[in-house]
Design a protein that fits this description.
The complex is a heterodimer of chains A (563) and B (160).
Chain A lengths: L2 E6 L2 E6 L4 H7 L23 E4 L4 E3 L10 E3 L3 H16 L15 H8 L23 E3 L9 H9 L6 E3 L6 E3 L16 H5 L5 E3 L3 H8 L4 E7 L20 H11 L3 E4 H22 L5 E2 L4 H10 L13 H12 L1 H7 L2 E8 L3 H5 L6 E2 L2 E2 L3 E4 H10 L21 H4 L6 H13 L6 H8 L5 E8 L2 E9 L1 H12 L7 E5 L17 H17 L9 H8 L15
Helix pairs in contact in A: 8-10, 8-15
Chain B lengths: L3 H11 L6 H12 L4 H10 L4 H10 L11 E6 L2 H5 L3 H11 L13 E6 L11 E3 L2 E3 L4 H19 L1
Parallel strand pairs in B: 1-2
Antiparallel strand pairs in B: 1-3, 3-4
């Protein structure tokens, strides 16, 4: 392949298979600015920020040029600096520059690069169109006036998620990113995953912000606010407070919520244990009857919506188990029924999730009981971070608190739900405990963990071979389903998570994200898994208490009943 | 929509490969004078392209229209030769006569559409217009209104 050396700013730099000059330049310790270049997406070459000049005076974008032996380039000649600033000026002139009231401020790539390039003025008159802000979605808000047309969201939606809900339309100065026929995002096939928001360098796509509702609930004397926190939140939120990705901050998060006035804080990993029990039971039943296989997991609401749109024929294959968030909602509402009657308060269930699609999930009609949502409010990791800052809580100095009982203890299996492969692994752990004849546990789990797009593993229960697949990224899922439907592949359980790497890289998590951050967050969860006092869901004493108490005659609240 | 049978024929002609979309849209536009929204969605489904992407393609090319066009499509050349020979007053006269503008290009009765184009390749006849691909050269604002009235008469006769 391509090997050789090139001269960058007078220094000889070796290259070995780098896919473009940009990677070589970055290897040389020069951080060329980019908006539209992401290693996991296709190369687009739209933003032109990564331009350099060669020894013959040619100017080109390094992201879309291959390195060649003997090449000589300069990254910061007066000409390049002038052009780069010009390009930046044009981008800025077309951008709604109301930074002080933008929710992306401080975390905005445009702001960052503008500052790095020392932009002091924009000579051109603003051509910002007064485009309508699309607030129709329960998950995200699209503000086209802040769009710089880098196309990151378009490629993410199409290439990684295989959805294609938004694309470029029109051309020249009229070009914009929009759903088909200028419809609202809710009128097309958007699955609410929020990956567009996670990759957007500006404030053009942001999380639907509902943090003020929590404040309202907390200040209402007639309401009792209880919170559940998903596993993936605890390994990412710290990034907003200067900590390394993967740092476990759950103790501080609980403290912060208590400061704010939350009565009890519970662990969604606990209801993940509950999901494991229900899903394992469901799977064994299906396996015995040999019907509705493969069983597709139902924890990821973006996947469920994707299947609703594209694979109606799979509706009986998708697990009827509610997702951990919704299971917990139902359980908590039931648990507090008595207490509500006693003290005349209404219990409000709030969940803190790494995910924008969870906001939409909580609003699905099958999760509304007697006119009330099972989960009243879903806030993302990002919204909670803003609340912590808004409340003036000094996160660094918080004393760590622990989850409340009786739903504050989870097995290691419940914790890894937040990472791709985690649900499958947890269900397997449970199945293997149930059927102790299996010996190849270690080999099996190595196959399921990790971040490759599709993983598969086989194991044997009582002489029956069980084939399992784990996939993340909806485009990968669609490809896998094609293989299943064409008969090329056969599985018994398929775990699908929409976001690359699973919930740890959800659309509501701190940004920017890259492969390394995802790995670190995932490692954080597996550390919790390794150090958990109990490994398997059925060993969780609280689960048994629940099954013998509150849920004694009511396992049905753990399952979805489509309306 | 019963016309989907016709759309199927068009798709069969070009094949349902993604790369055929432009040729298919050309034929669709030829058939309807524009590309109806539901047809575009139908085509995108058949070619396994997202409707959003198909919309992007259809809006990228000036020649595709997602709005219904009139029975008579009047193209006024505003290329260099026609422009210097005063095509602008012709455009203005036509728009005034038909109550149209740069944004509203088709009359409410769907009879006339007025578009400007960059060159019709008949610079010797500048300023030039075409009505449904028939070329009329050396136009003036007065001549174009006369021409328009002739077509109106034609429409009137057809109605009888």
């Amino acid at each position: 392949m391509m090997k050789g050396s090139m001269i960058i700013d007078g220094r000889k730099i070796e290259f070995d298979n780098e896919k473009n000059i940009l990677e070589v330049v970055r290897k040389a310790g020069i951080d060329l600015p980019t908006f539209c270049y992401h290693s996991e997406l296709s190369i687009y070459g739209a933003c032109r920020m990564c331009i350099v000049e060669d020894n013959r005076g040619n100017i080109f974008a390094t992201c879309s040029t291959l390195p060649q032996d003997g090449m000589e380039i300069y990254t910061n000649t007066p000409k390049i600096i002038k052009y780069r600033k010009n390009i930046m000026e044009l981008l800025l002139s077309n951008h709604d520059r109301d930074c002080t009231t933008c929710s992306k401020t401080g975390n905005c790539k445009l702001q960052e690069l503008s500052s790095k390039l020392f932009m002091q003025e924009v000579r051109f008159e603003s051509k910002t169109r007064n485009e309508e802000i699309d607030t129709s979605s329960l998950a995200i808000v699209r503000n086209p006036n802040k769009c710089i047309l880098c196309g990151d969201c378009v490629r993410m939606c199409e290439e990684v998620q295989g959805v294609g809900a938004i694309s470029f339309a029109y051309r020249g100065s009229n070009m914009k990113i929009t759903p088909a026929f200028n419809r609202n995002i809710t009128e097309v096939n958007c699955v609410d995953c929020g990956q567009c928001r996670a990759i957007c360098p500006t404030g053009a796509i942001t999380i639907k912000n509902e943090k003020d509702e929590l404040i309202n609930y907390l200040n209402d004397d007639n309401k009792r606010v209880v919170v559940q926190i998903a596993p993936a939140v605890r390994v990412a939120l710290g990034e907003n407070f200067g900590l390394e990705p993967g740092t476990i901050t759950i103790g501080k998060i609980i403290s912060a919520l208590k400061y704010m006035g939350v009565e009890s804080v519970f662990d969604t990993s606990f209801s993940a244990d509950l999901t494991v029990m229900a899903e394992a039971e469901e799977f064994v039943e299906r396996l015995e009857k040999k019907e509705n296989l493969p069983l597709f997991t139902s924890c990821c609401p973006a996947w469920v919506k994707f299947a609703d749109f594209n694979y109606k024929e799979l509706s009986n294959n998708i697990s009827t188990c509610k997702s951990p968030q919704q299971m917990f909602g139902s359980v908590l509402k039931k648990y507090y029924q008595e207490k509500d009657k006693e003290d005349g308060k209404e219990t409000i269930v709030v969940s803190i999730m790494p995910c924008t699609a969870k906001k939409a999930e909580a609003n699905r009609e099958e999760f509304i009981t007697n006119g009330k949502k099972d989960v009243d409010l879903v806030l993302t990791t990002q919204e909670l971070s803003i609340l912590i800052q808004q409340f003036g809580i000094n996160f660094d100095n918080l004393i760590e608190d622990s989850f409340d009982m009786p739903f504050g203890f989870a097995s290691g299996a419940g914790v890894i739900f937040g990472s791709s492969g985690g649900v499958a692994e947890a269900v397997l752990t449970r199945l293997l405990k149930q059927k102790p004849s299996v010996s190849d546990k270690e080999i099996l789990f190595k196959n399921v963990r990790g971040l490759e797009s599709v993983k598969e593993a086989n194991f044997v229960i009582d002489g029956t071979e069980v084939r399992i697949a784990v996939v993340h990224g909806l485009k990968n899922a669609a490809e896998l389903i094609n293989k299943i439907q064409s008969g090329e592949k056969t599985y018994d359980i398929v775990e699908v998570m929409a976001c690359p790497g699973g919930c740890i890289a959800g659309g509501g998590q701190p940004t920017p994200m890259d492969e390394e951050k995802r790995k670190k967050r995932s490692n954080g969860l597996y550390t919790l898994n390794r150090t958990a006092q109990i490994k398997s869901s059925e060993e969780n004493p609280l689960i048994n208490d629940l099954f013998e108490g509150l849920l004694k005659d009511d396992h049905e609240i753990l399952h979805v009943h489509k309306k | 929509m019963e016309n989907f049978k016709e759309i199927d024929d068009i798709i069969a002609l070009h094949g349902n490969d993604k790369s055929s979309i432009i040729s298919i849209l050309h034929d669709v536009q030829h058939k309807f004078n524009y590309i109806p929204e539901d047809v575009l969605e139908y085509v995108s489904e058949k070619l396994s392209i997202s409707p959003t992407k198909a919309f992007g393609i259809a809006t990228f090319y000036e020649n595709f229209s997602l709005q219904p066009k009139g029975k008579y499509i009047i193209k006024i050349c505003d290329g260099t030769a026609c422009h210097v020979r005063k095509s602008t007053p012709i455009i203005e006269a036509l728009r005034k006569e038909l109550n149209l503008s740069e944004e509203k290009i088709t009359t409410d009765d769907l009879m006339f559409t007025v578009e400007t184009v960059s060159c019709l390749g008949a610079c010797g006849l500048a300023p030039v217009i075409t009505i449904n691909d028939k070329v009329y050269g050396k136009m003036t604002p007065e001549a174009v209104v006369d021409l328009l009235n002739e077509h109106r008469k034609e429409i009137g006769n057809e109605d009888k």
